[in-house]
């Protein structure tokens, strides 16, 4: 069995909200139930799991995926706890299936009941050296990188604002987005929004919201008996420089992070950037989207914003990007956010994204993390032939 015989057969995304009345365990369970129902499977069909949130009465050591065996009442043959969300979890699950450790894997997580008040989200201020003692938060790590880039390419500032406005307007039209109906925005609106951390304004930066997300992964052979057209893994790559949000990011080291991961993914898939139909990039801020276009090989360094504007990244453009509104407008649910990227890619490739469907989408990229985090991962997904 090969990598492109690993299929995503179910996706589940709970209502995304600024503040939820549920808790993190509840939204993770809700998302899991939605993904299993979408796949036409039951929880008893699962023999592998990667879950960010432990079950009740279990370990206090997150992520605690083993707790879910008790929670679901089924024996689990494989658990993935190294990074149990997004592309890393998908590839861990693929490895488990390819080596016979599991046949059907559930990946689920999210956050709820953890935000509120006038403070930044707790997960943006981990208790790390150079973060907690100095009052830093994750946006400042990305801002350090952005400042250096804009010193070299000052024209990119307005281009980044255009990117933010485009993605936010995509989300404004999505009834499921947290920011539905907020907009339309222009680049001037983004540039004139309240400043948060130089060079970013409020509209340059992603949301902090609540909800759950889940996917179900199995073999292509099994997928052909399930309700939806299978979406398979064509290629993937990961790149880890160092632990996130400890040492400050250095521009020379991290601006191109993801280039080696992308080269690996495209080589495995036998494809190139020009073959991508939709891009679910990790839009933690406006300039990070442009950076990914450069790192992934869509254009040269310094040309990311020009590429986005010339190509068109809105629904009617040549490379629709963050087609649900992304982290900027749809939702950012902490550790569950990378799984949202995969879920939207799958919906586009299956052709069931509703009013936001991109006609003829056959290859999608789904990505996670970025320069300020000092690691990056991406997967190339495609419709099974």
Automatic annotation (TrEMBL):
Domain Thiolase C-terminal: 259-382
SUPFAM superfamilies: Thiolase-like
Signal peptide: none
Matching InterPro entries: Thiolase, Thiolase-like, Thiolase_C_2
Protein name: Acetyl-CoA acetyltransferase
Annotated organism of origin: Pseudonocardia parietis
